[in-house]
Amino acid sequence: MASGIKDKVAILGMGCSKFGERWDCDAEDLIVEAYQEAVADAGIETSQIDAAWFATAIEEVHVGKSGVPLSVALRLPNIPVTRVENFCASGTEAFRGAVYAVASGAADIALAVGVEKLKDTGYGGLPQRGAGPLNDMIKNNGSAPGGFAQLATAYSQKHGVDMETVKKAIGSISVKSHANGVKNPKAHLRKAIPLETVLNAPMIAAPLGLFDCCGVSDGSAAAIVTTPEIAKSLGKHDLITVKALQLAVSNGQESGHNSWDGSYFLTTRKASERAYKEAGIEKPREQISMFECHDCFSITEMVTMEDLYISNEGEAWRDVLDGFYNADGQVPCQIDGGLKCFGHPIGASGLRMLYEMYFQLLGRAGERQLKDPVFGMTHNLGGQPHQNVSSVAIIGHQGA
Amino acid sequence: MVGIKAYGGYVPRRRLPRGVIVEANGWFNSALKAYSKGERSMCNWDEDALTMAVEASRDCLDKTRPDDIKAIYLASTTLPFTDRQNSGILGTALNLGQNMMTMDITSSQRAATSGLINALNVAKGMGGSALFATGEHRRSQTANNNELMYGDGGAALLLGEDDVVAEYIGAGQVAVDFVDHYRGQNADFDYNWEERWIRDEGFMKIVPDAVQAALDNTGISADEVDHFVMPGTIRNIAAMVGKRCGIREDAARDNLHGVMGESGTAHSLVMLVDCLQDAKPGQVIMVIGWGQGCDALVFRTTDKLPSMANRLGIKGHLAHRKEETNYNKFLAFNGLVQQDGGLRSETDKQTALTTLYRNKEMVIGFVGGKCEQCGTVQYPKSRICVNPNCGAINTQEDHRMAETSATIQSWTADNLTYAPDPPHHFGMVTFGEGGRMMADFTDVDEGGVAVGDEFHMVFRIKAADERRGFNKYFWKAAPKVQAS
């Protein structure tokens, strides 16, 4: 295996806009809001940035294609700006581009920005859009929750956990994220809800009800990265470095070969295995202090807890019901409210997760601060369970 | 001897009780109340004349799928395309190859019987078999009598010279421009004239001429006719006409009005298939086709007839029944009300014809690939084998997926996506011979789907591109039709 990214790159600064239904904002406003915080946190000038990566997934409903929208919004000094799109992992992809640029020596300081302005479609949920002329002829009709809901039927079948228990466990996941979101001033949804509300909500795609689905939000997040040496030369002391950055992409096996049973994410397992190896983590359940996973739907989070090897296979529902992932549990998950409550502006989400881990590691998370975290992990899952991209990133204190 | 080698039928699963229609529209047209008995078949939103013809043909061809088909005929007045050969789509859907004649026959309720006479004549000495399919899905104005009289359905016959289950003896035809109803170019609905005139001047005078011509041409006497297959929505019309022709009273076949209504052009063959399902070897069947004149065809069943017992035919599909009591659904499925589909329904549905042409076997014929190196069946067919332990390049042979079972591995009922009949059911199905796909489901009821259920694949409308008048067709998973 390659030597990996561990400790080669440090986060110099991060920023995140308020997420939510930002009726008064265009994507440009959101980008500037996140960037201003990041650049101030980094303590640098725009002119010091050598290259930028720009993530947005559904550009057709807001900024359009290319790196131009970012360069124009920030009046970047004609530096390279690369636009990346990889479903819901787009934000993490922008981060990966910036980190690799610094690690390679091609850039001293690099910027990653993700944005999504989703609330200009006229309806709730993600925009429906084409998948190309051939796919549009043979691909099933169905929404995002429709695809993810099937994890629940397959999981229930495989592990012999009755659907009522599954519903209760995934409902508890949403209750936990709502409780966490209350303490996050930038979160889209900031209201605690009881389990009964979740269980009695209108059905979106069986067995997922309204509160099993994350918010669809407007928002932006940004990261500025550099080498640990440059970070120190700029006066930073308590450095947060990148420990692992992994991405796994489906090759058609899950959708086309009968070896996949529909109850787990093949890609997340591959990406997390590689990430732990890259970061030198051997016992994730004990070593990972906290994580943000891609809880687009409550069932996604539950299955992912297993695919990230925090819970044993077939037992995440038990850990959830035991409070293992709560704010006061052993491995808090979605301490910032997650996609569920912080919100899910697709291109920004991966960077938003890193923003929370970074703030927690630096002890700057305010009311929701966890005690002495060492490693924070983030995870994105884009596409559908049977065909997707999955990213895993781990950051931590330098030397940890 | 030329004749019918096999038969198949199709009737949509949904049945609308006439009482439901009368309840909705009786306030406006009180005359409807006289027709409130029985039920009519109704297409699901994703069914039309073509899809019903495909399903009837699949029933007819069964698993044996003859490899000597030289011609495909499709008869209907409600074909989805006015200028794109519909029988060509039928042939592609059935994956029957392209070295054959294909032809649409239309413009009259008599299209199926006239076409069948021609097809049988051509089949003599053709050196192969011919598939003759029909389907009809007529729309009608609300509160019009036709709404109660019509039903949707299809039938298919395999014609040839060997091993026939019913020998074609001959026919009689008369052509008379008797306009009991018509539907002009671009008109949505039929325009009808008075029923009493149609009965007295039409049926009672024109049909006997055709019957007599058929009897003269075949040397069969009227009292030899065991089954008199004559559609007609006028009460008791077949028995009345039969009596005038000297045909035994008990020979008049039930016109299926009580259980499905009249399926237009298709109905003569729908009734013929229904008849073949309970006829005995050695019986004489006369089939009447009515429409600006009359066709009368004479068949005699053979001792091969019992070999068709595994076909669902019309009786099997009639038994696979779901009562639909929501009249608004009938209106919506037939485009008779302006529905608000919501913003999600507004996505453009243009079809790239170049892409469709390159992939017509994959899309319309549901042909996947089978790796000749490792044997893995996969859909879609691809350049590199999907089997993680194989990965061979350019090794996949065409593999038709339509006839294998489809077992549900996971599923959902989706209320968010736009669907004409929500919630939209779909899920991962695994095929009996290998391979899988995330498939749309159709003909399922809420609460009626479970992991492990064995479905089968059916040819349906995937989406209607209303802006351009183009129906997109593909395959969906549906509960198996179980003959009871």
Textual characterization of the structure:
The complex is a heterodimer of chains A (400) and B (484). In chain A, helix 3 crosses helix 15. Chain A is α/β, with parallel strands linked by helices. Chain A is built from 15 helices and 11 strands. Chain A folds into 2 domains: 124 residues, 3-Layer(aba) Sandwich (Peroxisomal Thiolase, Chain A, domain 1); 218 residues, Thiolase/Chalcone synthase (Peroxisomal Thiolase, Chain A, domain 1). The radius of gyration of chain A is 20 Å and the shape is globular. Chain B has 484 residues and is of the alpha+beta class. Chain B has 2 domains: 246 residues, Thiolase/Chalcone synthase (Peroxisomal Thiolase, Chain A, domain 1), CATH 3.40.47.10; 95 residues, Beta Barrel (OB fold (Dihydrolipoamide Acetyltransferase, E2P)). In chain B, the strands form 5 sheets. Chain B has a 9-stranded mixed beta sheet with strand order 5-4-6-7-1-8-13-12-11, with helices on both faces. Chain B has a 5-stranded antiparallel beta sheet with strand order 20-19-18-21-22. The model of chain B has no long low-confidence stretch (mean pLDDT 96). Chains A and B meet through helix 4, helix 5, strand 5 and helix 9 of A and strand 18, strand 19 and strand 20 of B.
Would you spell out the secondary-structure blueprint of this structure?
The complex is a heterodimer of chains A (400) and B (484).
Chain A: E1 10-16, H1 27-42, E2 51-55, H2 68-74, E3 81-84, H3 90-104, E4 109-116, H4 135-138, H5 144-159, H6 163-181, H7 195-199, E5 203-205, E6 208-209, E7 219-226, H8 228-233, E8 240-249, H9 253-256, H10 266-279, H11 284-287, E9 290-292, H12 298-307, H13 316-321, H14 338-341, H15 346-361, E10 375-384, E11 387-397
Parallel strand pairs in A: 2-3, 2-4, 9-10
Antiparallel strand pairs in A: 1-7, 4-7, 5-6, 8-11, 10-11
Helix pairs in contact in A: 1-2, 3-15, 6-12
Chain B: E1 3-10, E2 14-17, H1 18-25, E3 39-42, H2 49-61, E4 69-75, H3 86-94, E5 101-105, H4 111-123, E6 129-136, H5 145-149, E7 153-160, E8 166-175, E9 181-182, E10 191-192, H6 195-218, E11 225-229, H7 237-245, H8 267-276, E12 284-290, E13 293-301, H9 313-319, E14 322-323, H10 327-333, H11 353-358, H12 360-363, E15 367-371, E16 377-378, E17 396-400, E18 406-414, E19 424-431, E20 436-440, E21 454-465, E22 470-479
Parallel strand pairs in B: 2-14, 4-5, 4-6, 11-12
Antiparallel strand pairs in B: 1-7, 1-8, 2-3, 6-7, 8-13, 9-10, 12-13, 15-16, 15-17, 18-19, 18-21, 19-20, 21-22
Helix pairs in contact in B: 2-3, 6-7
